[in-house]
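Please decode residue identities from the backbone states below.
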């Protein structure tokens, strides 16, 4: 099943308002005007989505919560690097988010479970249409949607899938695959995007080409490549999981997670990755992939502190992380 390999799908659209400079050249007043225009377009738009969004002024957000938003992939690291004149519209279930005044005026994104590119794009397109009805986007007949970074010109769309690739990683096939993907207009990298190292065998596969191709063609291309990677990972897993050494590693990982009193972030992700492999291969039946996937987010440093309701030292995070994992696995 694709959900055994693909954890989530994300579709992001970049848009700019016609009568305003890009955020890098926008005054404080201009930033506030953009925020209010977009906020009004969402709030008063003819859609059931309108009432589901909460408004978050980034300059008023606790730093820990800001980092937690990045850890959950709801916003970009760049977005929280300077909170002045920036805001976030976030749906109650956190599946929809709109960053205001990041690199572009509007960065709207949709996150869905498993391999669900068509569904995610459909939702993003509806949200885009809702905004387009009340706002005038910067658009050129030849170039498409105008964006601050030329690599986003055209559709302004970045679609990605979050993949769990422990077998391909162990066989050191990911680097070879990455080289081949670049020729197809795709890229594979760490879970948090450009410049991040993969941890817990989590990788992000995304489209690179936005100019001269339609959104649906880009989605279809990404979907086809994702399915090929899923097939390769499943074949590699079948071979890998026959190894007694791998089975022992999976079992030991579950034991450590159930009983450890201290757990670093990197160790937690590595062990959870091993256990997830055990779950999808049928070796472990006491926990589901949904539980493991949620833990992989909840053990992140800032998210731990946010959920604890207070600042935690490094040692307190390691203690809290281990306690959270033990409690979750016992109640799974």
């Amino acid at each position: 099943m694709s959900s055994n390999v693909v954890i989530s799908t994300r579709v992001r659209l970049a848009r700019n308002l016609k009568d305003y400079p890009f955020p890098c050249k926008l005054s404080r007043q201009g930033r506030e005007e953009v925020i209010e225009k977009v906020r009004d377009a969402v709030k008063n738009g003819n859609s059931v989505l309108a009432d589901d969004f909460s408004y978050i002024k980034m300059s008023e957000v606790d730093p820990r919560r800001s980092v937690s938003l990045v850890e959950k992939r709801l916003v970009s690291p760049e977005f929280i690097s300077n909170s002045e004149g920036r805001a976030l519209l976030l749906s109650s279930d956190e599946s929809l988010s709109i960053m205001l005044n990041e690199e572009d005026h509007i960065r709207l994104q949709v996150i869905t479970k498993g391999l669900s590119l068509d569904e995610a794009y459909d939702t993003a397109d509806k949200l885009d249409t809702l905004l387009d009805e009340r706002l005038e986007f910067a658009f050129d007949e030849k170039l498409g949607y105008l964006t601050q970074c030329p690599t986003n010109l055209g559709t302004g769309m970045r679609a990605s899938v979050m993949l769990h690739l422990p077998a391909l990683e162990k066989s050191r096939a990911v680097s070879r695959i990455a080289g081949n993907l670049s020729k197809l207009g795709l890229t594979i990298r760490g879970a948090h995007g450009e410049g991040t190292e993969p941890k817990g065998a989590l990788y992000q596969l995304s489209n690179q080409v936005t100019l001269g191709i339609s959104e649906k063609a880009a989605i279809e291309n990404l979907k086809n490549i994702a399915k090929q990677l899923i097939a390769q990972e499943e074949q590699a897993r079948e071979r890998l999981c026959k190894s007694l050494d791998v089975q022992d590693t999976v079992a030991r990982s579950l034991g450590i997670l159930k009983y450890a009193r201290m757990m670093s972030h990197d160790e937690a992700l590595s062990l959870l990755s091993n256990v997830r492999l055990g779950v999808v291969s049928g070796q472990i039946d006491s926990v589901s992939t949904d539980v493991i996937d949620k833990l992989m987010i909840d053990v992140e440093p800032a998210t731990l502190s946010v959920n604890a309701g207070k600042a935690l030292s490094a040692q307190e995070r390691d203690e809290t992380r281990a306690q959270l994992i033990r409690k979750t696995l016992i109640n799974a």
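Observation: The CA atoms of residues 65 and 306 lie 6 Å apart.
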